[in-house]
Design brief:
It is a single chain. The protein is of the alpha/beta class. The protein has 6 helices and 11 strands. The protein is globular, with a radius of gyration of 22 Å.
Length: 246
């Protein structure tokens, strides 16, 4: 089975449809499937429900789907720096299901593990708990959260082989491994694809059984979400030689 496709458009062919649920990996701009999300935008598919920690920043990644009003609902933990995301939500133009970040991660992990629901103390006594089943365990109140399972997951990996085995790089791992397991079809954009067998099995983060299609995208743009700098100070002059050991 050939999993490697020549481009994002062909990798998504036959998968996209109006009203579908899509998981999109990444955190801010770190580890986002930017090439695939742009291809979804170009396809014109609409009324999407998108599960993602946030929607990146204005003009990049999922924000481009917000620009074209292709997203109907976001399931996220953070609106953050995306002004368009905030504007559409506050104007009532975009549905938003807020989740505590750990709860969102666990909902995705549960969906991938075939767990339909679980109980957590996070959110008890807050707006998060409204309308959710509550239960007492060992004298403590918990609320029930449903697992999440999508029609499509788009993820970004640092390295992959032709069998679909993936390796993520450092913090770009974030939500990607969990989302890879929690969708009917997972499509990965990979910076470098190598022959099957070239990756040490102990280094694999996502086994190829979860990945149906892949594209190679190279290093791409390594954007910095916030560039924080400080003014350099001149280096202190070296101490004069005194002949005394310190």
């Amino acid at each position: 089975m050939n999993k490697v496709y020549p481009d994002a458009k062909s990798a998504l062919a036959g998968i996209l449809k109006d009203g579908m649920m899509i998981m999109s990996g990444g955190f801010g701009l770190c580890g986002i499937a930017e090439v695939l999300s742009d291809a979804i935008r170009d396809s014109g598919v609409k009324n999407l429900t998108v599960i993602s920690n946030n929607a990146g920043v204005d003009g990049i990644g999922l924000s481009r789907l917000l620009e074209t009003r292709q997203i109907k609902k976001m399931i996220s933990s953070y609106v953050g720096e995306n002004k368009l995301f905030a504007q559409q939500y506050l104007a009532g133009e975009l549905e938003l299901e807020f989740n505590p970040q750990g709860t969102l991660a666990e909902r995705i992990r549960a969906g991938g593990a075939g767990i339909p629901a679980f109980y957590t103390k996070t959110g008890v006594g807050t707006l998060i708990a409204e309308g959710k089943e509550e239960k007492i365990f060992d004298g403590e109140k918990y609320i029930m959260e449903r697992g999440l399972f999508a029609d499509l997951a788009i993820i970004h990996a640092w390295k992959g082989d032709t069998a679909g085995n993936l390796v993520y790089r450092k913090t770009a791992r974030n939500f990607n491994p969990m989302m890879a397991t929690a969708a009917r079809v997972t499509v990965a954009e990979v910076e470098q694809i190598v022959p099957a067998g070239d990756i040490n099995p102990d280094h694999i983060h996502t086994p190829g059984i979860f990945v149906k299609r892949m594209i190679e995208v190279g290093r791409g743009n390594k954007r910095i979400e916030f560039r924080n700098t400080r003014k350099r100070t001149s280096a202190p002059a070296p101490a004069a030689a005194t002949g005394v050991e310190i």
